[in-house]
Inverse folding.
């Protein structure tokens, strides 16, 4: 699949980094402002899809990206379940116990394990949506005409 | 009550598309329309007149907040809707490559 | 508020009706975006900013995937005559829709006017949430702390759907 014209390529080079940073900001401040893990994750996936669409698939080695992305997604899901079951060790026998100290409402470092959940769920959602898009492109490339 | 009835009419339009259409892509579009009407109905249930968005400002704590529970349920449902639509599209593109048509009656007759 | 949401819902119904009956498949897919982006306006009017952010990006990705599937084929729908089987199914659907609409109208009279009623768990969740979870965003506190099981279930459903897509769209096996 060929890329797009040179205007689109130059604009993507300028903007894609800012979209990625905005996604990380929405994930990190998920317990203070609207947003959270799911919103930030889909924004990061949108930045990756934009770069792949603008430059075309001849430009990257897509199969290596697909293998690396599946590893990221599986690891993030396993870590979410591990943090949830770590509530067994500290405190009562309750799943998803919020066991880290809670702090003052409104600070960046507050609300126990919530920022950790936000980060790993965001990574997993971004990896899932990017894998769906990549497998569609690889299918179109590999199929015989 | 008029908004609840209009939401249900949107759901019925989607159901009409799923039952009577013969093209696979239009069946997938109608399924997506049915999902959107359900999200809107949930968000309508939780609205309170004169409420603000549910973000607590620590300097000014006593206000009327909109109910956060239906919003939490819809938040995960939106992403799951995307995943199921993508899975349906993958099956559709494989069927097109094998049979050459999007029509469900011809695919049923071929029985390859 | 009711008037604004009713007008936007009216546009969404018209857009959905056009999208189902369009002759060209690419027009049908793009007109499906009316329903999605109208939902974003309704979410902003109902004071739900988290949902608006997620819905606008997910709708764009949905449109990209559908256009990628449609552009791969011939884009027309080449049959539109109703034969006998089509008539039977159309009449059945209209009778079913009339019955369902009547019963829904009867049972929606037990719902209160828009904006005046509260659900049962609204009070306990709002009062205790900022102190018990420590987060200023109440929706994040409910999603990850009070309802953590649902979030774990959602993560597992996403992994399963991606597993299904990878299995279906794989042409060459490993050597």
């Amino acid at each position: 699949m060929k890329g797009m014209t040179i205007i689109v390529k130059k604009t993507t080079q300028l903007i894609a980094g800012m979209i990625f940073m905005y996604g990380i900001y929405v994930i990190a401040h998920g317990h203070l402002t609207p947003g959270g893990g799911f919103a930030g994750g889909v924004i990061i996936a949108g930045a990756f899809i934009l770069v792949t669409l603008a430059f075309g698939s001849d430009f990257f080695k897509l199969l290596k990206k697909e293998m690396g992305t599946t590893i990221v997604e599986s690891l993030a899901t396993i870590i979410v379940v591990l943090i949830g079951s770590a509530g067994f060790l500290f405190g009562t026998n309750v799943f998803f116990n919020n066991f880290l100290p809670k702090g003052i409402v409104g600070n960046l470092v507050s609300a126990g394990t919530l920022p950790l959940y936000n980060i790993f769920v965001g990574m997993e959602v971004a990896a899932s949506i990017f894998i769906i898009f990549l497998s569609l492109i690889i299918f179109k490339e590999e199929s015989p005409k | 009550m008029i908004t609840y009835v209009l939401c249900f009419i949107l759901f019925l339009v989607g159901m009409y598309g799923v039952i009577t259409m013969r093209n696979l892509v239009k069946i997938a579009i109608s399924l997506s329309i049915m999902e959107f009407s359900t999200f809107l109905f949930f968000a309508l249930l939780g609205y309170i007149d004169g409420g603000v968005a549910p973000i607590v400002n620590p300097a000014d704590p006593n206000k009327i907040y909109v109910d956060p529970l239906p919003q939490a349920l819809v938040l995960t449902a939106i992403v799951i809707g995307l995943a199921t639509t993508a899975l349906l599209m993958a099956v559709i593109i494989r069927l097109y490559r094998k049979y050459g048509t999007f029509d469900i009656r011809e695919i049923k007759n071929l029985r390859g | 508020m009711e008037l604004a949401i009713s007008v936007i819902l009216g546009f969404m119904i018209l857009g959905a009706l056009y999208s189902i009956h369009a002759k060209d498949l690419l027009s049908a897919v793009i007109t499906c975006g009316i329903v999605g982006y109208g939902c974003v306006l309704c979410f902003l009017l109902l004071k739900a900013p988290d949902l608006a952010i997620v819905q606008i990006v997910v709708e764009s990705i949905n449109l990209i995937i559908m256009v990628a599937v449609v552009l791969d084929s011939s884009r027309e729908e080449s049959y539109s005559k109703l034969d006998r089987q089509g008539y039977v199914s159309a009449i059945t659907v209209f009778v079913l829709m009339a019955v369902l609409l009547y019963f829904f109208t009867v049972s929606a009279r037990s719902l209160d006017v828009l904006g005046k009623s509260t659900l049962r768990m609204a009070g306990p969740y709002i009062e205790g949430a900022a102190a018990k979870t420590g987060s200023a965003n109440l929706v994040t506190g409910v999603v990850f702390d009070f309802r953590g099981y649902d979030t774990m279930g959602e993560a597992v459903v996403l992994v399963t759907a991606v597993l299904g897509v990878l299995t279906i769209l794989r042409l060459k096996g490993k050597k």
User: Anything to note?
Assistant: The first helix of chain A runs from residue 6 to 28. Chain A has one domain: 6-142. DSSP finds four helices and no strands in chain A.
